[in-house]
Amino acid sequence: MLLDVHDLHVTLPDQGRKLRAVRGVDLSVAAGETLCLVGESGCGKSMTALALMGLLPRRAERRAARLQLGETDLGSLSDGAMSALRGRRMSMIFQEPMTALNPVFTIGDQLCSVYRRHTNASGAAARARAIEVLESVGLTNAALRMRQYPHQLSGGLRQRVLIAMALICEPELMICDEPTTALDVTTQAQILHILKEAQAARNMGMIFITHDLGVVARIADRVAVMYAGRVVEEGTREAVLRQPAHPYTRGLIASVPKPGGGEPGQTRLASIAGNVPAFHQEDARCPFLSRCLHRMDVCATTPPPVRQAPAAQRFACHLLPGWTENRTGVEGRA
Amino acid sequence: MTMLLEARDLTHVYTIRQGLLGRPAPLRALDNVSLSIKRGEILGIVGESGCGKSTLARILLGLETPTSGTVLLEGRPVGDYPRRERALAVQPVFQDPYGSLNPSMSVEELIALPLHVHGIGSRAERQKRTATMADQVGLPRRALAARPGELSGGQRQRVAIARALVAGPRLVICDEPTSALDVSVQAQILNLLLDLRAEHDVAMLFISHNLSVIEHMADRMMVMYLGRVVETGPTRAIFARPHHPYTTVLRDAVFSPQDDGGVPDLGLRGNFPNAMDVPSGCVFHPRCASAQPNCSTVEPMLKTHGEDERASACHYPLIAG
Fold it and tell me: What is the pLDDT of residues B230-276, one digit of tens each?
């Protein structure tokens, strides 16, 4: 396994209380594989990514039973060693490319400085490498782009520059945090195309964070659905999207408008009532309790067990594997 | 029957100065856009950044005066309306429920504000109407005393919708009302808008970059590209068979959880053009997979191709046979 994470916790201090942003997450990514981390705002997906990269806010606490990248134990690395590894063996791209690029340096300066930081390449070799990687992400006129500043590029081109920067040292793992959310739909399709090509060419592992289940359907090998700091369902794309087992996953999928799904302007969508629970809430009950259509008494008193669903994915719920909804209610209550 | 709202040949030109010493140059944000909305109808407008959809919204709201063209509200030029009367008839819901609500006012004050401004009802009546509106948009009573900062994004958007509807407008202009929200909350807000339409018979202009949201909400739709309407017609008919190649591209770029089979190649050439330097002929031709030589010289007019109520601006519309 390229990345192996077991029981990851992230806690942020907040006015004497503790915000438990990530609560016991297990994840793994193989070389060449895409894991999509799905969930709504505040579910802990970005905190999980920052914890893997060692980029959490200074006051945050991270602990994990296991945090391995290949043979390297990320949990025991010093800040210096982590910084030497970041950008070389694992890299990350963010939602807003403008804030991730420095406005006062040219694209070329920024790409070369990343490369020279991790290699002892000469200036000329770094420039050649930067042009090569810009061309590999479909940027035309790479030599001209090298001399331009971030504000001279469109959002889609900036995101390509960030991808090039993340790829320049040929990392084993790339983490993408909502890289296409701020882009137009046609640009999104182009960027996803470039990312998947770059991944295939390098057999790179990829963690792709998104709230867009349509994107998940197009790029994921495996999917982990997060809710309130936990992974509530995890399995192959086919299992999670076609035969979702957790009531939250089912609700999320149902709340997306479907192409050809009923008379325009006349059809109601299934929605999930209520809002996500507070970060302070304790683990004594199911975090989805207040919004779940199928809650039972046990859900309020006992944390949900992790079960294996018929399509082989794991899900954390008191409902039995293979539970079904029918007109009279739910079959498969524990 | 007169249309609730009719816009004819709207053209809007911004003058942009590029750089400190640059010469001012014209940017045609809208080029000959016409539309009409019937009472109680939802017209969807879809397009990517720079297509002119937000400029159109600002003109219809009266926040901007078009360079040329007319807007008729119930048959009367919108410029002839006193400002208050126009505001009573047309109300906005914007994308950002953080930026569009005054943070120092309570939710109750925010929702009641249009009633105050227009001097509708007594104090007690206003209070009652505000409470009823809050109920209808699904805001709990205890939220009335809260400030916007204490609410979630979905709740803030409910406040914005309640405020837009409280004085009984005939048209609500929704500019990307769910783009900043999570999907489960988006579903709640879309349901709410459809319920309110059914209840109050209010018409909506619904602007979005997300074609599947437009398909869900709109009775009729318009596709815009670089300030022009490239296709318009009943939503159902357009989705069944788009006539314009750009509509096809947009449709293929929207992914649904039921999809499969990797990221599609949209067949789009090049990048989104610079709005300051609009291509000749058909504005879409440099990116179009089915462009022919005359597409780069002759601009296609918006016209019907056999089906009533539908029109597209393409020399080679995608029509069978």
Answer: 999 999 999 999 999 999 999 999 999 999 889 998 888 877 777 78
The label of the residue with tokens 């079960």 reads A307
DSSP conformational letter for B39: T
ipTM field: 0.87
Q: Provide the pairing of β-strand A222-227 with A34-38.
A: parallel
A91 against A290, higher pLDDT: A91
Structure tokens at A46: 């970005």
Residue A331's pLDDT is what?
Answer: 65
* Nearest alpha-carbon partner for B183 in A48, A223, A213: A213
Q: In the 8-state DSSP scheme, what is residue B263?
A: P
Do B295 and B319 touch, CB atoms closer than 8 A? no
Helix (H) or strand (E) holding A177: strand A173-177
- Residues of B whose CB is below 8 A from A268: 191, 194
DSSP track, B119-186: T-S-HHHHHHHHHHHHHHTT--GGGGGS-GGGS-HHHHHHHHHHHHHTT--SEEEEESTTTTS-HHHH
The single residue listed with the structure tokens 């793994």 is A28
Mean pLDDT score across all residues of chain A:
91
Amino acid at A306: V
B193 in contact with chain A, both atoms CB, cutoff 8 A = no
Q: What Rg do the C-alpha atoms of chain B give, in angstroms?
A: 21
Query: Which residue of B lies nearest to A241 if distances are taken between CA atoms?
Result: B257
Residue A218 dihedral angles phi and psi, to the nearest 5°: -90, -25
Rounded CA-CA distance A319/B148 in Å is: 37
What is the C-alpha separation between B64 and B122, in angstroms, rounded?
33
Which residue in B73, B81, B78 sits closest to B36, CA to CA?
B73
**Total Cβ atoms within 10 A of residue A111:** 24
* Distance in angstroms (rounded) separating the CA atoms of residues A81 and B220: 58
Two tokens, residue A194: 């470039």
**Residue A211 C-alpha from the chain's centroid:** 9
Which value, to the nearest 10 degrees, does the dihedral of the CA atoms of residues A203, A208, A213, A219 take? -10
Residue type, A226: M
Q: Which residues in A lie closer than 8 A to residue B258 (C-beta atoms)?
A: 217, 241, 258
